[in-house]
Amino acid sequence: MILVILETPISKAGLESLCCATKLGDTLTVGLVGAAAQEAANSIGGCGARFLAVEGEPYSVSRYATDAAAAEALIRASGAALAIAPCTHRWQRALPGVAQRVGGAIDTHAVDISPGSVRRWYYRQRIEVTLARAATPWIILREPGSGDPWQGVPAQATVERLDVTPPATRTQVEGIEAQAASQQTIRPDAALLFVAGAGWTKKQKDGAVRTSEASELILQFVNRTGASLGSSKSLVDQSGEGQAVLPFLTHLHQVGQTGSTPRHRKGLASCCHGEEPHVVGWRFVNERRAINLDPNCGWARGKADVLYVADAFEVLREAAKALGQPGAD
Amino acid sequence: MNLDADILCVGFGPAMGGFLTTLTRGLSEEGLESAAMPGLPPQVICYERADDISFGVSGVVTRARAIRASFPEFDPDAVPMAAPVTSESLVYLLDPHGASRRPAMLRAADGILKIAAEHGAIELPYIPGFLQKHDGFVLSIGQFNQWAGQQVLMSGLAQIWPSAPVSAPLIEEGRVSGVVLAADGAGVRGALTVVGDGPYGAAGRRLDEEFGLPEGHVRDEWAVGMKLVIELPEDTTLAPGTVIHTFGYPEPEIFGFFYTHPDRIASAGIFVPSWLENPVRTAYRYLQHFIQHPYLWRYVRGGRMKSWGAKSLLESGRRGEPFLAGDGYARIGEGSGSTNVLTGSGVDEAWLTGTQLAEAVLVLLREKKPFTRENLEATYVARRRTSWLERENLVAEKARNGFARGVIQGFLGMALAGFTRGRLHWPSGDVKRRTLKEYYSGRLSPHRIVEIQKQCAAAGISLHDALMDACGWPAIQYDGQLLVTHQDALLMGGKVQAPAGAEDHVLFRDAVLCEECRQRTCIEMCSGQAIHAGETKVPAFEREKCVHCGACLWNCPGNNIAFAAGPGGFHSAEN
Amino acid sequence: MSYQIVVCGGIAPDPLQTLEPVPGPALKNEMMLPHVFDPWAAHALYEAGHLAKLNPGAKVWVVSMAPKAKLQQVMMTVAQKLPFELVPLDGPPGGFTDSADVAEALAAAIRTIAGLDLSRLLLFGGWESATRGAGTTMQRVGALLGITEQFLAVDQLEVRDGGSLRVWERLEGGRQQVSLCSGLPAMLAWATGHLPEPPNHPPTGMANGRLLMPALQKAKPAPAGAGCTFLDVSLPKQIRQTVIVKDKPAAEIAREIVEWITQ
Ligand SMILES: Cc1cc2nc3c(=O)[nH]c(=O)nc-3n(C[C@H](O)[C@H](O)[C@H](O)COP(=O)(O)OP(=O)(O)OC[C@H]3O[C@@H](n4cnc5c(N)ncnc54)[C@H](O)[C@@H]3O)c2cc1C
Ligand SMILES: Cc1cc2nc3c(=O)[nH]c(=O)nc-3n(C[C@H](O)[C@H](O)[C@H](O)COP(=O)(O)OP(=O)(O)OC[C@H]3O[C@@H](n4cnc5c(N)ncnc54)[C@H](O)[C@@H]3O)c2cc1C
Ligand code: SF4
Ligand code: SF4
Predict the structure, then answer these.
(1) Which domain CATH number covers C105?
(2) Would an 8 Å CB–CB cutoff place B510 in contact with chain A?
(3) What is residue A69's predicted lDDT score, i.e. its pLDDT?
């Protein structure tokens, strides 16, 4: 029997985990955590699972103490040998501690789950591994975006509520902060990832540094294409050193070994050399193009599908023309 | 004097490896007590400039006599990339492109030799005894230093701090009382300062300035060694321990080496000496032609560059020996003139000087004698003078006399004489740094040179590629694997790095001199392309690309480069 | 407030090195490669150092598990950055060990730290290692030490009057969750934080060195197993056939790109 741990309302990542679990050919229990479970259970009622829930206001927010208590109760109550949850921040924070409490094993960032084995990455996307475990319960956190969401029909579900006394906690969630949409970093919903590299702030052919033009071109491009903005480490490090270069970039934009590993379908790199520590962050970006002055930069070496050897300033200026007014996409 | 430690050491190369290995073994003896921290064993602190103790650059094949004396059970399997020498050859490489600058005499000889050549080269029927290393080992200096350093650290009797450049010795009232650290300019005091910072370390150079060199000694012969570490193709026939020394190509003055490590790894490199007359002297381009010589290309073709490195060698040998000891300090390793230029050997020699100093220091500690010039001379210098190092370096010094114009010419002369049974030999003459016009005379017209200079200046690129192209050197066909651009080489095996916030360590002393300089050799020869044309006539320096090879220091004809101790550089442990 | 901050962090191959798996699994020439203090744990350490500097009387311990000889080498750099006391464990190399075993060893080592009041502990670490890359170790250590206030992928920490902590955690999609934690103990597994790498300060190194060297010499072996069977360990096969477009006018390139984007 497989337990799928989901928060309510059920997110896309949650539906993906559910879909994945249904394919493993075992009976399913869905464990719901949130303010109220019924509606969420109904929304996936067609999956034919048994529904357990830990419900109530304390469980409505993402917080270690309450999430861990809820998940622990679900695992114990279900008696599942295998538990699957989406590898979102919430469950990655809570479930390792739960694995410790229930004496189980845990794997995260799973991109493929088959009966008895998971596939995931080691060394920050640099080594691919398939592994099997005997220990139970085995908790697997499934990487969002690595499979299709469950697409069955809603149906009235019977929900068994577990009575879990909310644990004492000293943590109070104050809220979620997001940056302004235009500056927003790595937005997973965008179709395109646009990466700006340190070349934007380097001395150009004419010997001048044109940072403000760079800012303008980059923002214009991102706004008009609806792209998500990423960066190389070199560029965000400059902002960190107070050089007030591209002011809208922070370390949250950094893609790569010590940054993020976004999953946009397409990626366009500009003024970025395409060094290995950066490109490991592109692991899940399928179609890759790059604009760089240097025909021998890293992208040329099998890291991009297309390398345009050109001045990114010129190309983006032209692209702005081609894209026309905001919203033209 | 308030002491921070007992013994302060500058640099962790083979010399310091020998010193600290021997010293820490002795320090655990009864009765040796720290003067800085009574009750504890003597406190030993070593400062290394590079970001790790494994980031050195060298060939290396070594007879390892001194190293084996320290480790009688030395097992090459314990040191990654080490292998016993299994075969050795000395090869004269003919120029397959006719692009090198060969004197008429040599061209004539080449014409004759071509008949006997295989793969464009002649394997010499014998290797001069002094060059033979058949009882030795092929090593990676990075891995060897790491191996030696880890053992020293594990003894708990010495601290080795990487990324800690020493800007100068602390000199007070005519004696050395410690070191000044580049990070914060702070002085650290110790009873003895051991300077083993290699051929161009800032501490050693400061001592030379302060105390001068012994009568008649000069440090005027240098070379920059540049190498690749190559993963050989899977079907390689080269056995680990294969050693090939070359000469004759890419220029007659350029020596080359090719050593095979275990696991299909090879080190291949060249030495571009100070007596190469070409003012535009780029080791990197030459290195690419070197590995593409048919004799070597058949081995490396299809291989992959794993790492890359460059570093200067002080080739003055014993003639460049400084005062080996003074009040409060002693010098070991290549910076102390230990490298044997005739045998092309510096690692074992450096190690030996370190062990000799350590033995001397242990004697003085036991006898509770101070580290004065007198005491150090009676113990350390005396040991050095009676060892094989001194004997062999004196031979090297004398042999050089016979090698009228330098080692290359000497070897070539020998090769020529050997093959032609004395009918041909190397002509003698004076060495001088030529102007572009002189150097390329007969091959490129002055007009063409000026044209190339203008084009390059307009494009903001350096001259050497254009000049070499014009002379008939074939363009490099980059394959992204073994033949990569110079800039990409900086990323191989671990990118060249410079910590944010550190000061530039390469400075142009006198702007006027640079403004008037026509050769701009500093730009053309820079091993990392870290020096390039700037906005003004003074070249610009980019710290992030500097590999700390030290070549700019001795290549500027006006001696106009100040080379301070700074952190950063290579991040490869394979060199 | 005199904080007691324990930072857990291992070592990882310098990210610029080429990695190649060999049966075991292990990395080819793992011990040959230059190593660094695990990058995210390093951020945690810089934050810890910063907090300690602002709060006189605070103390930082670094609990680190790695092959002793290599750990020692890495520590000689890290120890020059800020004052801390090292609690070393002589563990196996690499990332193919299970976080359960590693957490067990780390928690046990933390318990043995003399003078440490676990009820006031501020436990720091990186949110994922650059080796195992799982992001599960710190939560396990927290669980073993009974710490119920845990934060993952922390970008910012504000210590408020009265000792409460405001914590910013990095969420999906570039958002951040802000929480208020009214008191210790707490576990914070850091993402990049806000602080640059402190420059080397040799006197700090020497001060750290006095305890560092003896501690390393006494480091006890700490075994850790894989806890699983590796069915396949390989390098991603992701070499693309790059088309290099040269000498095309910018306008044409722009048009091609826009077309590609809108496809
Ligand atoms: C421990 C560690 C972790 C790291 N983690 C990461 C990480 O997570 N993410 C990351 O990105 N890096 C990471 N790095 C750093 C990485 O090694 C590189 O330094 C970084 O990615 C380089 O950034 P860049 O390509 O933007 O800059 P640069 O290397 O400076 O390249 C700039 C590029 O811009 C090009 N250019 C300049 N002007 C123009 C123009 N007008 N038009 C077109 N092209 C132009 C140049 O040709 C050049 O290729 C890490 C390094 C270390 C040591
Ligand atoms: C390409 C090449 C090939 C070679 N091939 C061979 C060979 O085949 N066989 C052989 O025997 N020899 C060879 N040599 C020579 C050999 O490498 C040297 O003779 C030997 O390394 C000298 O050892 P050392 O300890 O004196 O100095 P180094 O090895 O130069 O070590 C000095 C150390 O001091 C550090 N340092 C410098 N300045 C400072 C400062 N200011 N503060 C702190 N630290 C500092 C340096 O970073 C370095 O680690 C070769 C050299 C090169 C470059
Ligand atoms: S540093 Fe020397 S070689 Fe370079 S421009 Fe100045 S004077 Fe000429
Ligand atoms: S600037 Fe750096 S890389 Fe260039 S020659 Fe000088 S030391 Fe070597």
Answers:
(1) 3.40.50.620
(2) no
(3) 98
At B431, the pLDDT band (50, 70, 90 cuts) reads very low
**Whose atoms come closest to the Cα of B227: which ligand?**
2
d(CA C1, CA A211): 43
- Containing B228, the helix (H) or strand (E) segment is strand B222-231
Question: Domains of chain B: which residue ranges?
Answer: 5-58+142-218+317-396, 81-137+220-314
CB of B558 within 6 A of ligand 3: the answer is yes
B296 CA → ligand 4 middle, Å: 28
Which residue ranges form the domains of chain A, and what is each CATH number?
2-161 (3.40.50.620), 192-322 (3.40.50.1220)
Is the pLDDT reported for residue B479 higher than 60? yes
Average pLDDT rounded to a whole number, residues B365-373? 96
The pLDDT of B482-491, averaged and rounded, is 87
User: Per the domain annotation, does C188 fall within a domain?
Assistant: yes
User: What's the per-residue H, E or C state across C73-130?
Assistant: HHHHHHCCCCCCEEEEEECCCCCCCCHHHHHHHHHHHHHCCCCCCHHHEEEEEECCCC
CATH 3.50.50.60 given to domain B5-58+142-218+317-396 = yes
Q: Does domain B81-137+220-314 have CATH number 3.40.50.620?
A: no
User: Ligand 3: does its nearest atom lie under 6 Å from the Cβ of B461?
Assistant: no
Domain count, chain C: 1
Q: Is B478 close to A207, i.e. CB distance below 8 A?
A: no
Q: Is position C246 within any domain?
A: no
Mutational test site, ligand 3, from B509, B517, B523, B536, max ligand atoms within 8 Å of CB: B517
Measured in angstroms, the CA of B226 and the nearest CA of chain A are apart by: 22
Number of Cβ within a 10 Å radius of residue A103: 10
In the DSSP assignment, the letter for residue C244 is: E
Per-residue confidence (pLDDT) for residue A239, from 0 to 100:
60
What's the rounded mean pLDDT across residues A102-123? 95
Which of A143, A170, A225 is the best substitution to test chain C (most C C-beta atoms within 10 A)? A170
Ligand nearest to C-alpha C202: 2
Mutation for A interface: C149, C175, C182, C259, most A CBs within 10 A: C175
In a domain, C14, yes or no: yes
How much is the average pLDDT of A160-167?
Answer: 96
> What Cα–Cα distance (Å) separates residue B17 from each residue in A326, B46, B179?
65, 10, 19
Residues 49-108 of C with CB under 8 A from A: 95-96, 98-100, 103
- Dihedral of alpha carbons B487, B489, B493, B498, sign: negative
Domain hosting C54: range is: 4-221
Beta strands in B299-407 (DSSP E): 304-314, 325-326, 329-331
Q: Which two tokens stand for residue A307?
A: 């390398």
Token readout for B316 is: 């003055």
**What is the ipTM metric for this complex?**
0.92
Residues near A167 by beta carbon (within 8 Å), at least 6 away in sequence = A65, A66, A68, A69, C148
At B404 the pLDDT is 46
Beta carbon of B281 within 6 Å of any ligand 3 atom: no
Q: How confident is the model at residue A329 (pLDDT cuts 50, 70, 90)?
A: very low
pTM for the predicted model, two decimal places: 0.88
Q: What is the pLDDT of residues B7-61, one digit of tens each?
A: 999 999 999 999 999 999 999 887 899 999 888 899 999 999 999 999 999 989 9
Residue C227 lies in a domain: no
Please tell me the predicted confidence (pLDDT) of residue A49: 96
Q: Is B480 on the interface with A (CB under 8 A)?
A: yes
Identify the weakest region by mean pLDDT among B290-299, B497-506, C109-118: B497-506
Name which residue leads in pLDDT, C77 or A187: C77
Reduce the DSSP state of residue B143 to 3 states and report it.
helix
- The nearest alpha carbon in chain B to A299 belongs to B480
Binding pocket residue ranges, ligand 4, CB within 6 Å = B 506, 526-528, 530-531, 546-552
Structure tokens at B417: 């004489």
